[in-house]
Design brief:
Order of helices and strands: EEEHEHEHEHHHHHHHHEHHEHH
Number of domains: 1
Distance between the termini: 27 Å
Structural class: alpha/beta
Largest sheet: 8 strands, mixed
Number of strands: 8
CATH class: Alpha Beta
Low-confidence stretches: none
Mean pLDDT: 97
Strand order of the largest sheet: 1-2-4-3-5-6-7-8
Radius of gyration: 18 Å
Helix content: 40-55%
């Protein structure tokens, strides 16, 4: 099957920002919202979508600040790129598409948006799956030398503008290739050339470089404030949660994903490591599809 064959792309004006979204799959099937991470776009799902779309109606946006979506200005608190605001974008997208409830899958940054979405809008999320992350607050609170060395970008991208922006803009393609090759398990060869072209096109735009830095600055500031407030208020995940991570990745080596997610959830948490690195939808597409299909099939809404 060709590149997103049968899936339509459009731009929705929601929550004060333009969100580029690709939709398709089984007409009338259970809706699944698929959220990508850094340094990518919705193109990360190109190997998952043809298979998962046989049974589910898929919604694959570019997060604000990424890809073809809007890149709004952000103030000193970086609130425009808080996961709360980014989650509200996705609620508005699903409203616009007529989906009252849905499943959510989030990889990397998309997983952090999905976590906040599920906390802020629990009635909308039937089941949640996160890929290759532990909760943001958990990871920051556990920071040590090994984590800082492995996740150097968490501490580089949060530096005041325009320092990281200028570093990346000096050679954005080399920076992008280094992250893709370094975080996966198969170098650049594991990525489809059309996917790489999508990611390169996004990071050729200085606005994308700045907006994605703002995403990380928000994560190290206002997002932690929101997470601590949720913890103090006893707000926990209430829907079944499935956690997948790469057995060759940093999360597997330095964290305990199932324990970490059970610590913030009142629902059943399941999951396992898959035979890959960080970019599971591109490295382990068949396994990801199998895991999601089984997980979502157990929901009453999908019956």
């Amino acid at each position: 099957m060709g590149w997103f064959e049968g899936f339509a792309a459009r731009t929705l004006n929601v929550n004060g920002v333009e969100i580029h979204v690709r939709t398709g799959g089984a007409p009338g099937g259970p809706p699944v919202l698929l959220l990508h991470g850094y340094p990518q776009t919705h193109a990360i799902w190109h190997r998952v979508a043809p298979q998962l779309g046989a049974r589910f109606a898929l919604v694959m946006p570019d997060l604000r600040g990424y890809g073809r979506s809007g890149k709004p200005d952000s103030g000193p608190d970086h609130a425009a790129y808080s996961k709360r605001v980014m989650a509200a974008d996705q609620i508005a997208v699903m409203d616009a598409l007529g989906h009252g409830w849905f499943f959510v899958v989030g990889h990397d940054r998309g997983g952090r948006v999905a976590h906040r979405l599920a906390l802020d809008h629990p009635a909308r999320v039937a089941r949640l799956c996160v890929l290759d992350i532990s909760p943001t607050l958990t990871m920051y609170e556990a920071t040590d030398f090994e984590f800082a060395r492995a996740y150097y970008h968490w501490f580089h991208l949060i530096q005041p503008a325009p320092l990281p922006e200028r570093h990346i803009a000096g050679n954005p393609i080399a920076d992008l290739h280094g992250k893709l090759a370094g975080w996966g398990s198969g170098g650049l060869a594991l990525f489809d050339p059309q996917a790489i072209a999508e990611y390169e096109g996004a990071f050729a735009d200085p606005a994308t470089i700045h907006a994605t830095c703002e995403d990380y600055r928000a994560a190290a500031g206002i997002d932690l404030d929101h997470d601590r407030a949720s913890r103090a208020a006893g707000e926990r995940l209430s829907m079944p949660l499935h956690v997948l991570w790469g057995e060759r990745g940093v999360v597997h080596r330095l964290f305990r994903p199932l324990d970490d997610w059970r610590a913030v959830s009142d629902a059943v948490v399941t999951g396992r490591a898959l035979p890959g690195g960080h970019f599971l939808p591109e490295e382990c597409a068949d396994e990801v599809v199998d895991e999601l299909t089984q997980f979502f099939a157990g929901a009453p809404e999908a019956a």
